[in-house]
Amino acid sequence: MTYPGAILFTAPHRLAFLVGSLGLAAMSLWWPARLGALYLGWPGPDDASLPAQLLHAPVLLLQVYPAFIFGFLLTVFPRWMGLADLTPRQHGPAATGLALGLSLTCAGLWAGADDVVRAGFAVFAVAWLLGLAVLAGVVRANRRAARPACLHALSALAALALGLASLALVLAFFISGDPRQLRWGNVLGLHGFLIPVFLTVAHRMIPFFAGNVVEHYRRWRPDWLLGALWALLALRIVGELAVQPVIAGSAAAGLAACTAVMAWQWWPRGPVPGLLRVLFWGFAWAPLGFALGALAAFGLPLGLAPTHALALGFAASLLVAMVTRVTLGHSGRPLAMVPIAWLAFAGVQLAAVLRIVAALEGDPAMLLVTAALLLVGGWLPWLTRNTLIYLRPRLDGKPG
Question: How far apart (Å, rounded) are the C-alpha atoms in residues 39 and 320?
Fold first, then answer.
């Protein structure tokens, strides 16, 4: 006898992507509502003692994005190393914990209940630890099988470990109220977790995907490049945490140069399918974001423009591309950028541009609200369709 909801455990990505989609939808609606209430006098969610402006970044960086990231990595880790897919007993507990934690956080945000938000972060941290242990187990199994080390898996594990440390810092802020801990958590969450995860996945997957569909394509992804990216990211983190603009700016400039070379080497010299094209367009935000970060570190007043170029333009663009690919491919559907996915991608591009413009103009309220509403309009139809897919069996009748 199959129990209700069992389909969510038939593949590692289903439950994690489902809760990520619902969490992203809840946050996409909550943020413009809070901005409108704060700046424009709109009726909005209940107030709480934890200001919305302080919660926006850690919820997205350390709960919404990670739900999708864990769903993706729990799916691809064994495949990267030629091992069997994870079973529901392996991926189910972590995914369930992620779902509970993010659900509590979103409920707490909308209800203005600080203790529920804190509980959501705590539960999510436990689930993160479980997911990290499962992925580390895959690496150990690969090692026991005497297979070559998978550098991409090791890189992703390192980023996940730093992400858990940043989550712990945010939890410490909830307890102590020390704003330095929140700042440290956000810096480590962006430059130690989110950005290296997406750079690692891009380094592995973009040349692979392009090599499968583009004639005479050179799959350029040298191993030393991952080491260079990590070294520069470490310098960036040190410079940010120690408030050393020269170190932070120099590292950002190096990252801008590295990612610009990556974009140039990877860029196809011919026609490619839309689902691949959006990966290149999304990756192009990386050198721009790092260049803005370097200019800001050296004194140019850019506000949060560098952060939004990376966390929204770069990360969200690749999120739309990767989640669309996994969702369609693992549901027995053709791999193609359907119109609703193009809408989501376009919404991210417009919102990122407008959010950068807002930062350059001192963050006027209407620009902030408009950027947030563009994301709602772009994301919600895409998230709704994806949610329905996760709740249904594969079209081709295959397991998973």
Answer: 30
Written in H, E and C, the secondary structure of 26-81 is HHHHHHHHHHHHHHCCCCCCCCCCCCHHHHHHHHHHHHHHHHHHHHHHHHHHHHHC
Residue with tokens 């053709």: 334
Per-residue model confidence as pLDDT tens digits over 96-111: 999 999 999 999 999 8
- pLDDT tens, residue by residue, 28-57: 999 999 888 888 878 777 667 788 888 999
Q: What is the pLDDT of residue 2?
A: 46
Tens digits of residue pLDDT in 134-183: 999 999 999 999 888 999 999 999 999 999 999 999 999 999 989 999 99
At CB < 8 A and 24+ separation, what contacts does 2-10 make? 7/391, 7/392, 7/393, 8/95, 8/390, 8/391, 9/88, 9/91, 9/92, 9/95, 10/88, 10/399, 10/400
CB 223 within 8 A of CB 151: yes
CATH number at 9-390: 1.20.210.10
φ/ψ of 371, rounded to 5, equals -60, -40
CA 361, chain centre distance (Å): 27
| Residues across the chain | 400
Q: Which residues neighbour 222 within 8 Å (Cβ) at sequence distance 6 or greater?
A: none
Written as one letter, the residue type at 298 is: F
Contacts of 24 (CB under 8 A, 6+ apart): 64, 379, 383
Residue 4 confidence (pLDDT) above 80: no
Tell me what percent of the residues of the chain surpass a pLDDT of 90. 82
In order of 159, 171, 181, 281, the CA distances from 73 in angstroms are 12, 24, 28, 22
What pLDDT score was predicted for residue 49? 77
Other beta carbons within 10 angstroms of residue 357's beta carbon come to 13
Closest CA to 136 of 111, 114, 161, 117: 161
